[in-house]
Every structure is written in C-alpha cells, then in structure tokens.
Predict the structure.
Amino acid sequence: MKRIAKFALPLIALSTMVAACGGNEAAQSDEAAESYPERPVDYIIAFDAGGESDITARLQQEPLQDALGTEVTVSYKPGGGGALAWSELTRTEADGYTIMGHNLPHIILQPMMREDAGYETGQLKQVYIFQSTPNILAVPADSDIKTLDDFIAAAKENPGGLSVGGSGDFSANHVGTLLLNDEAGIETTYTPFSGTGAAVPALLGGHVDALMTYTPMIDQLGDQIRTLAVATDERLPGLEDYPTFAEQGIDLVDGAYRGVAVPPETPDAIVDKLAETFAEVNEDPELAKQFEEQGFVLENMGPEEATEFTAERTEVYQDLFERLGML
C-alpha cells in the first residue's frame, strides 16, 4: 500500500500535466481556426487539367475566395489515377492551407485493390462531398457503333477487342466498365488514363474505341461524341435526349462523388470551418446553375456524413469485387 501511495502524487501530477497540454492544444487549435485563413489556400487537383475535378474547382474558386477572404490557387498533381497526390496529402503539413480534391470510389478502391497505393482511405480526412457525376458510355461521333446494342454485339463478336478508356485504375470509370462487362456478358479491355483530360484526346484520336466517362463530357464534347447510355435510374434533367443503361436492359447505375480532404492531423476546428465554407459555396444559386449546366449533381455531405458515406460505399465495393473474383 505504501508503494502505491508513493507513486500516487507523481501520477496525479502527470495526469494533470497531460490534461493541461490537451487543453492547451485544443485552445491553440481553436485560436488557429479563429484566425484561419491568414494566407492563400492551395486547392490541389489529383488529375490533369480539363477533367471534372478541375471544372468543379474552377467554378468554386471565386466563391471560395469570397467566403474565405483570401486567394485560393488551383494546382494539379496527376498520377496513378489520383493516388500520387492522395499519398502525398498524408505527409503534408496539417494546417488547412493545403486542401485536395478527392473522388469516390477512387480513394476506396485503390487501397483495397493495390498493395502500393501509398495511402489508406481513412488517412484522408474528409471535409465535404459537394457533387457527383454519373458514368456515361460514349464513342466518337463517326463510329460505326450507333447504339448500346451495337456496342454489346461488337464486343461479343470480338471478345477483348473493344478498348474502353477511362480516368484511372480502380475508379468510377473502371468500375462502370467492369459492371457493364458483367451485366452484358461481354469482355472489353479497359485502358486507364491519368484523368478525363487525357482520356478524351485518346478517344477523339482513335486510340480507344469508347470512353466510360462522366455526364459533363456530353455538353463539353457536343457533336464530337455519341453518348450510348447514362448510368442513372432515370434520364437526367437537361439530358433527356440520352437513354439510360437501365431502359436498354442493362442494370448499371454508377458514377463518381467528388469532395475535398485534408491531411489526417488537421485540427477539427479548421476542418469544420472549411466544411461550412463549402456548404456556403454550394448554396450559391449561380454555382448551382453552373453545376447543373455541366451535368453535375449537387451533393451536401459534411465531415461526419462524408465519412459515413465512404464507409457505406466501401462495403458495396468490397462485395462487388468479391463477387467478380477480383479480391
């Protein structure tokens, strides 16, 4: 008993010190959030310029600057379907001055399916998920393939002979292609590019036969492409001329969700301030109109909801890849 008593006071003192340190850190975190931001914020896109993530960031840039009261610069770090940038984010200073666009399912599937992704999904601290884009299957406007039935027939005639380009490995485009193969009973060859901005020239240059890409490309590419199907339950407002996979007998509803993340140790107070900023930007009527015109679907998920949604999608993709025998 005496021995226990002898150490009781030092332990109590140590506990008091730890609690004080924790309190100081929390106070410092709140103080940092109160004055944040005091300098420009770097908004990094994990893909090439010209893709959906870039378009989104460019539409957000001015409203973000107004809301934050500081300059927001947009820069690019493509590679590995986003993995290069997201891996680097886990080692970036956690002060809120580096935010990075992230995509689901990319940030789920890369660590799930690769040994060398360079990051784990949970290391990317969720700030906000602000939009989504359904997949589309498109071919060049001068292609002999006129309909989804033509595409499926050509794939069955020449298994593995049709190449389908998309943004990244283990991405929404990749999953969409795998689902199409599975649902239609066909075999195509998926060709990954560093982003949509790199995939489009490959299609228009005849280097791939088709693209599994996203709804904004319908408006951007106009009469340069023929959209065979859209991966939604029903035809989208503004895109009523384009049939869904479902109405053509293929059960395929899928796409990408986009948001921003920060380094894992970023103080919650700063994360919350950024989340409030993105929520405010999403309420901008002009931005909402531009999102719709681009084929984006507005989403509003703060840190907690975005984290929960990511966990839900992780279970969905785990089941899918187990069913396809790829795990």
Summary: The chain is about 45% helix and 20% strand. The longest helix spans residues 2-35. The two ends are 56 Å apart (CA to CA). The CA atoms of residues 126 and 164 lie 31 Å apart.
